[in-house]
Design brief:
Layout: E1 3-8, H1 11-22, E2 29-35, E3 49-55, H2 67-88, E4 92-99, E5 102-109, H3 112-119, H4 124-141, E6 147-151, H5 154-176, E7 180-184, H6 187-197, E8 203-208, E9 215-220
Parallel strand pairs: 5-6
Antiparallel strand pairs: 1-3, 2-3, 4-5, 7-9, 8-9
Length: 222
């Protein structure tokens, strides 16, 4: 069974690179986090994330985490987020919600100005908080983190918008036979696009460029 190991500043980026090389979606893969990234807030650090990814055996579904596991991970992430918000001086409520086998840690700031502060430009601050929470949960539990940190539904809306846009682009590429390069995206956004396009027969995706200008390219399948 083919297996690849890749490193990147974040687990999401390392997984993205490995999935692209294997030509599979995350739902078709088994992902092992070999090494967590180490560093400070907003990506400052000297150790990259390392992941090992392989395709699942034929007809073998990825084992879904138990609800108790998701609740444990959610509690750990929520405690971390609450402490972080307190240190930042941002008054907000933090609640857990389980949707489609994903545990969301939902942040609702008391003030409208704090919503933009926590999300950041193109979601970069929220992505940094997500990475910190994910790292803490993985280290405490020894398991892959299944928690998504969100601010007033930003990631849910972002996912829905990106999935719809990616599928529209994929259908256009399939119809015209010409590749289409999307706007620069974060690793989180690119992974959503890769998975959405993977559901359309006859097209594929690659990533092109370097962060923060890294883009997804949708092209006819070769």
């Amino acid at each position: 069974m083919r297996e690849v190991e890749r490193s990147a500043p974040s687990v999401e980026e390392a997984v993205e690179a490995a999935l692209l090389e294997l030509g599979i979606s995350e739902q078709e893969a088994v992902v092992d986090v070999v090494q967590e990234p180490r560093g400070g807030f907003l990506g400052v650090g000297s150790q990259e994330a390392v992941v090992r990814v392989r395709a699942q055996p034929e007809r073998e579904a990825e084992e879904e985490p138990a609800e108790e596991t998701l609740e444990e991970q959610g509690d750990l992430a929520a405690d971390f987020v609450e402490e972080l918000l307190e240190r930042m001086g941002v008054p907000a409520s933090v609640e857990l919600s389980l949707e489609e086998r994903t545990m969301y840690v939902e942040i609702t700031p008391a003030g409208d100005d704090d919503v933009g502060l926590l999300i950041g430009r193109r979601g970069q601050t929220l992505e940094a908080v997500q990475e910190l929470a994910r790292t803490l949960v993985s280290r405490r539990t020894g398991e892959r983190c299944r928690v998504v940190v969100d601010v007033e539904g930003y990631r849910r809306r972002q996912r829905s918008r990106l999935v719809a846009h990616a599928r529209d682009v994929a259908q256009r590429v399939k119809r015209t036979g010409r590749e289409d390069e999307l706007e620069p995206m974060t690793a989180f956004e690119r992974k959503i696009v890769h998975d959405a396009v993977a559901t359309v027969v006859g097209v594929e995706t690659i990533s092109r460029g370097e962060d923060p200008e890294r883009r997804v390219v949708v092209r006819p399948k070769r």
